[in-house]
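sorry for the late reply, my laptop died twice this morning and i had to redo everyting from scratch. anyway the thing you sent over, i finally got around to it. pasting the sequence first so we're on the same page, its 252 residues, then the predicted structure underneath. double check i copied it right bc i was rushing
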Amino acid sequence: MKQSPRRYDLKMDLERASAAEPDQSGEDSNGADIIVSPPRVVRRARWAAVAFLLTLSFYAVLIVLVHRFAYFDLDLSLARRIQSVSVPGFGALMIAVSFLGGWIAWPLVIATGLVLIKKGLRTEGVVCIAGTALGGVVNLLFKLLIGRPRPTDLLVNVTRVFHHESFPSGHVVFFVEFFGFLFFLAYVLLKRGPLRVATLIVLALPIVLVGVSRVYLGAHWPSDVLGAYLAGGIWLMLMIEVYRRIKAKRES
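ok and here's the structure:
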């Protein structure tokens, strides 16, 4: 019978972090494949609280500013520069990226979560679905409370008229939470090698491109996108912390 992969003991790794040596081989003494977490993840976790507070502070300041101003001069300048890009295929790429944050987003989240659960990664699947869903609700509440208007076609090129609030960008928040959590899982659970590198690149690209896409299509100001990266980052850190605590409790 084929031996199932040994699961990563998060609590033990945290306790041994300062003394543990990186597992270069990704295999146990018997040569069987194992799921490992790079020690660098554990070391960086010590700075998670600091990163969280700094991100939260920047986000709070930005909220105050965007609540007072419909847009900034820098918003207008950056938006026009991005929209002036005329590389062949660039517009189609921007539309395709934004499509992933439309109606297909939730079927994609649910399907991904169910696949993770079916593969035996139950905690990962549940956190992926529940965390992304709750993050979307929280982001919608912030949109309603802040009430910042969308860009208008009097200032920039608007490909589609939206009738709800602009800050922060829901597409960007979704991409950071969903693809960001999958990026974290790939970094922690996959062994070092070409597969992990390729997976990380594929998951990172949508996160980077969606911000440019929303500005290019005239759906958001650059500051809406910046706020969404901050908001999504905050929620992603909370998702990861919840995941780590659940894993530590189950494996203790």
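Residues 75 and 223 are 6 Å apart (CA to CA).
thats about all i looked at so far, will dig more tmrw
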